[in-house]
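Proteins fold. Shown next:

***
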Amino acid sequence: MEKRQIKTKLVGKESVFNILALSEATGLPVLLLGEPGVGKTQSLLDYAAAKYQYNKEAVRKNTFVIELDEGTKTSEIKGRVNMKSLLEDKEYKIDAPIADAKFLLINEVDKGTSGVRNTLLSVMREKALFYGDTIKKCKWEVMAGSCNVIPNDELENPFWDRFVLTEKVVRVGLDVMKAMWKTGESIQDVEITVPTKAEVKACVVDPKLMGKFLAVIYTAASDRTVYQVPMIVQATKLVYGLDDSQAIIKVCELIAPDKLGDVASKLETKRENNVRSLVGQYDAIISANNWAYTQLFTTQLIDELNDLNKTAGYGEKASNLKDTMIKVIGDYVKGYGQHTAECAAIVEVIDSKCTVNSSDVTYFQDLKRSIADNIAGNIASVQKHNA
């Protein structure tokens, strides 16, 4: 499998690069949702640049980006007659950059007229443009649409169902932004896995688990989407480096997030499901600001994680659940910037009692450092005030 190195100035966009890799591996369109300025367009451009080893001419030639609005004409998608070829060479030729590009990004896709959307449907579905009796095949390897949100009055519109894969692109965290102010702009290397379609097809997933998955999501997704599920799970297993159950749960997050709890309960052992349920409650527990109970709950959760970690074959799952718990604390500290002393006590409990290895040691160390810096800043502020 190809290990592709992406050089990017964007921070925290690994999940976006992975979903683009999943789109490339499956040949399915992807919808990127997020506020303006979060890096949707640049993520695709960085991804395409890595594909062509940063050859600017190759990137320009193989990338097509268009911003839609209410005035965008169908001809801007389907292309226009090459008048020079028609007048000088008497040859009827249509220039359609969208058909020749390998990487497509349709920004503000929700703004397109019905005519524009119908043309995009043929690009997504048949990978072709139709001009009467003439058909022009599209060469795209990754096709992405983007918008802020899917409009509420369009949630049932079948157009959106064509985007089988969906990814929410989130803003950079407050603490990360502060750090970027201090250190300035830098280039990061992000490695992603991009399997070939042959490798995806050869990937084996437990048919019993797939049967349980289908039973849960059958009523939550269209036949069009459900038909693609086996291939999506195979590709997800390879792109994200997951086991069968984890890959199925990840795909559920992408195509039927409302069914995530049902799917997890079907695939996981009772003990694992219980621990995942406790982790799922952790955000609400911390947000309630009852720190005595939070510490008690944390201790109980750590005991459950330690026991799960001792079960053969569950070390990686216990590690992932621990990381989820730690990131809940991190999000609280970043979002509220208060109760840092209480958070420090909770982190100390995790650090001293949890025997589960973390798969993201750097994040945990950065969190402890951030909490310590906040406490030091608060003490200095109080001393200055008292002086």
Remarks:
- The chain has a mean pLDDT of 85.
- The chain is about 60% helix and 15% strand.
